[in-house]
């Protein structure tokens, strides 16, 4: 093996390894696909080992590639940290951050950001999280988003996450509901019609995803993609629904809703901040994570 390895080749290798795609790595590195393929070929020639093999329409790392990535990733993270320390970030720099959020987080954070005096000359633009986790992580990897905030933990060694806040699930119904007032029994729950919301990742209804019990089949009146649409439908009908504690508290009066404890045990909903590990020590990304955490916990 040539002892004088080109660090640029290793950087290309790490992006291909993380993304499992020459096409996506080329986009992330602002290179052509032949350029990425050529860099990998030169690195394999210098090392004398094969790093990737074809697998279906994609590529898969060899055991040598896995070992190489595990060995050099910490060093590259340290170099990124060192560069970040030299180029210190302050919120007086003009910069726009892109943050992927689910609907609950959008409704809570956007007003806080608009009223905040912590941003200096920075701007934060919120965009909806993609419908599946793979697309969300790809946007972080391609640096099309600085952070994502979503429920649950993510898979993948290239990403880090930390809880932003947690909340409970609540049952909602109209204040004028003819049968449900103040409390609801499990028998009543199954007798009523339901407005439902599917959880993006699991393809389960919110009630099923966040309960510790296996729920029986319910009478579904409508299925929504928006929490606020679900609340509006519940307010204008005799249906019930399960929703976010924070949003139900924020909009109950506006929609004329009762907010009740569910008639079964539920799990906490944990909203996580997710970022690519290349930004672990980035002063700008650290500031963004700390600022959003400060705003949500104020």
Secondary-structure-based class equals: alpha/beta
How would you describe the shape? elongated
DSSP helical segment count: 11
Number of strands: 12
Mean pLDDT: 88
Q: Give the CA-CA distance, first to last residue.
A: 55 Å
Largest sheet: 5 strands, mixed
SSE string, helix = H, strand = E? HHHEEHEHEHEEEHEHEHEHEEH
CATH level 1 class label of the largest domain: Alpha Beta
CATH superfamily of the largest domain, called what? Periplasmic binding protein-like II
What is the CATH-assigned architecture of the largest domain?
3-Layer(aba) Sandwich
What is the radius of gyration? 24 Å
Q: Give me the side-by-side strand order of the main sheet.
A: 4-3-5-12-6
CATH-derived topology of the largest domain: D-Maltodextrin-Binding Protein, domain 2
Strand percentage lies at 15-25%
Protein name: LysR family transcriptional regulator
Family: Belongs to the LysR transcriptional regulatory family.
GO molecular function: DNA binding; DNA-binding transcription factor activity
InterPro entries: LysR-type_TF, LysR_HTH_N, LysR_subst-bd, WH-like_DNA-bd_sf, WH_DNA-bd_sf
């Amino acid at each position: 093996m040539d002892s004088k390895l080109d660090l640029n080749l290793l950087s290309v290798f790490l992006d291909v390894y993380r993304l499992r795609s020459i096409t996506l790595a080329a986009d992330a590195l602002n290179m052509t696909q032949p350029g990425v393929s050529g860099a990998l070929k030169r690195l394999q020639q210098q090392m004398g080992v094969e790093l990737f093999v074809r697998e279906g329409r994609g590529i898969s790392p060899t055991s040598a590639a896995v070992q190489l990535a595990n060995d050099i990733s910490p060093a590259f993270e340290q170099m990124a940290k060192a560069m970040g320390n030299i180029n210190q970030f302050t919120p007086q720099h003009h910069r726009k951050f892109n943050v992927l959020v689910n609907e609950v987080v959008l409704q809570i954070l956007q007003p806080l950001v608009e009223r905040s005096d912590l941003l200096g000359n920075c701007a934060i633009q919120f965009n909806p999280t993609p419908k599946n986790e793979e697309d969300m992580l790809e946007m972080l990897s391609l640096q099309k988003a600085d952070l994502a905030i979503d429920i649950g933990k993510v898979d993948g060694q290239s990403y880090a996450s930390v809880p932003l806040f947690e909340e409970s699930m609540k049952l909602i119904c109209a204040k004028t509901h003819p049968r449900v007032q103040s409390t609801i029994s499990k028998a009543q729950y199954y007798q009523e019609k339901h407005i439902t919301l599917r959880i993006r990742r699991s393809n389960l209804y919110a009630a099923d995803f966040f309960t510790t019990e296996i729920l029986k089949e319910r009478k579904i009146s409508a299925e929504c993609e928006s929490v606020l649409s679900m609340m509006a439908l519940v307010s204008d009908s005799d249906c019930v629904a399960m929703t976010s504690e924070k949003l139900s508290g924020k909009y109950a009066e506006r929609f004329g809703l009762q907010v009740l404890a569910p008639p079964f045990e539920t799990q906490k909903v944990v909203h996580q901040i997710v970022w690519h590990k290349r930004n672990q020590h980035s002063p700008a990304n650290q500031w963004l994570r700390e600022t959003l955490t400060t705003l949500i916990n104020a």
